[in-house]
Amino acid sequence: MDQVAANIETDGVTGLVEHLVANARRAMAAIAGADQDRTDEFVIAVAWSLYRPDRAETLAKLAVRDTGIGNVADKIIKNQRKTFGTLRDLLRAKSVGMIEEDKTLGIVKFAKPIGVVAAVTPSTNPSATAVNKAMMAIKGRNAIIIAPSPTGLVTTTETVAAMRAELARIGAPPDLVQVLPAPASKQMTQTLMEAADLVVVTGSQDNVRRAYRSGTPAIGVGAGNVPVIVDETADLDDAARKITASKTFDNSTSCSSENALIIVDAVYDQALAALRRAGGYLCTTKEAARIQSILWRNGKLNRSLIARDAEILAREFDLPEEARQARFFMVEETGWGPEHPFSGEKLSLVLAVYRASDIGQAMSTVRRILDYQGRGHSCGIHTKDLKRATRLAESLDVVRVLVNFGHTFGNGGGFDSGLNFTLSMGCGSWQKNSISENLNYRHFLNITHLVTPIAEDRPSEADLFGKYWARYGR
């Protein structure tokens, strides 16, 4: 019996979690005096543990073997791209000591650790999400304990081992990063949530709700179901290339992957032709019905078909030879809601396509799709008319509206996107999330405000009430 198993048997789940948290607090105490440069070395070490080419490949292969979803080539890219981009963002930020001074207000801000972080990670990104959250947590001189998805447990455990080894190599406490041991269980994760100082959850909505009920400050993220408009001003071939690259990336494991296209009537046929040239297959009505009956079982997605290769789906859906050469599959849809499952998140290489008479109807369709599923997350538009994008941002209950992007590559940060790199997208109160932005290092900091006297700033009553009095009287 190994030591972890012995601890579980002797002390139970509570004792095990208390042991991990105590380790984490000792590791935090050991780096409490670290300056910004040394703290950034810790962050770089964690980043390098996954970014290193051989490690990125090894863990990508393990993830596909462990979870059965996604594909190795794209997981290598994800492991490196997300890690590199997040490191870029973090090395440009202050997170130790005085981080901001506003002389006009007489306020100086000092960053402090938030404490031991419990991080729940999904099976879709068992390496990249674990490292992403660890980098952000350690940027604030916190320690992190990762609760992996049972499906991704082997990969996440190996990923944590790599982070710990790299931290030890540079003389940092390995216990800055720990992982819940096998057998992963809801009880163990719940106990960790209750013992930590902050909970950060990426994954199932059940885990998000559990985090918010844990009694510990929590950050959860919401489900995606991204609808994207293609209007008559769009560069159709450019849009098709971007949509295809985004939809097919890692077999559509990302919550930011396009799930529905709403194409205006004036360019509907041309847009479909461009999508076919880019690798899409347009299913017949009978084929779409067959796909629906196979992709959903008893109202739930068929787990054996989530994020599988296109050739596997074509075979399972019994599609013709032409489809077996395709990169993804388009089904035409007209409705939304439970009676129209293609209007929801599919986590597969299946894309719903809607025809809209004009931009107004396209926006209305986007709203209806989001009201069914994915409200708060994001939507997109391919257009040359930025006023239309502004209308979407002004009128829809979403945190992010992307213009002329492959959604997967812009929503969670990109080198041509101003959003910070992350693998966790907040959806605001629309999905009962506590953040309406991309998860970032600031969420892992406590801030002390030093306040000194400034010149009195006291307006007159007339300054504040004058217009009101003039209109309505006193």
TrEMBL record:
NCBIfam families, alphabetized: AcylSulfactDhSauS
Q: Which CDD domains match?
A: ALDH_F20_ACDH (cd07122)
Record key words, sorted: Oxidoreductase
Keyword Oxidoreductase belongs to the record: yes
What PANTHER family does UniProt report for this protein, alphabetically?
Answer: ALDEHYDE DEHYDROGENASE-RELATED
What is the official name of this protein in its record?
A: Aldehyde dehydrogenase family protein
Which ranges carry the Aldehyde dehydrogenase domain?
Answer: 17-276
Q: Which SUPFAM superfamilies match?
A: ALDH-like
